[in-house]
Amino acid sequence: MRARPLLLAAGVAALAGEAAPAAATTCDVSPQGVSFGAYEPLSPSQLDGVGNIAVRCDGATSFTVEIGAGGGSFADRHMRGAADDLHYNLYQEPSRITVWGDGTGGGSTLSVTGQDLLVPIYGRIPARQNVRPGAYGDTIVVTITY
């Protein structure tokens, strides 16, 4: 099992990940960051984004995906800027109900089986956060266990 940081930014985010091979199976992990685009503090609507983790194995494999809390907690992640924090969270489904996590503190893991899979990550920045313009980012550790 290996963990690599997942980087999130209010503009475009980048993920990095890697999984160690099991005895009979080899998997490659290629995460893609969650892209939120530009955030408008006065907008009454939240800002959603989507990224994914590509997992390609040489045979059908069961694995578990865990995502760390990054800045903050599973209930309230935040990206840091030069002067402010921009609150957001990461979810397992498009309805953005189940918070991604490591199985503790309100965050859930995801168990899947497959050979070539894209595991989506759904992000949301809540509306009307009084933050200054600038770049915001967070580092998230993604762990794939198989």
Question: What are the main properties of this structure?
Answer:
single chain, 146 residues, eight-stranded antiparallel β-sheet, disordered N terminus
Can you offer a commentary on this structure?
With 146 residues, the chain is mainly beta. The chain has one domain: Immunoglobulin-like, CATH 2.60.40. Helices cover 0% and strands 52% of the residues. The chain contains no helices and eight strands. Strands 1, 2, 3, 4, 5, 6, 7 and 8 form an eight-stranded antiparallel sheet that branches. It is elongated. The N terminus is likely disordered.
Task: Write the SSE topology.
Layout: E1 2-9, E2 14-15, E3 27-35, E4 47-67, E5 77-80, E6 85-91, E7 110-125, E8 137-145
Antiparallel strand pairs: 1-2, 1-8, 3-4, 4-7, 4-8, 5-6, 6-7
The biggest beta sheet is recorded as: 8 strands, antiparallel
What separation lies between the terminal Cα atoms?
7 Å
Number of strands: 8
Radius of gyration based on Cα positions? 15 Å
**Approximate helicity band:** under 10%
CATH topology: Immunoglobulin-like
SSE arrangement, N to C:
EEEEEEEE
Can you identify the CATH class? Mainly Beta
Number of domains: 1
Supply the number of helical segments: 0
Instruction: Briefly note the structural class of the backbone.
Output: mainly beta
The CATH architecture classification is: Sandwich
Proportion of β residues?
over 45%
What do the pLDDT scores average to? 85
Shape: elongated
At the fourth CATH level, what is the homologous superfamily?
Fimbrial-type adhesion domain
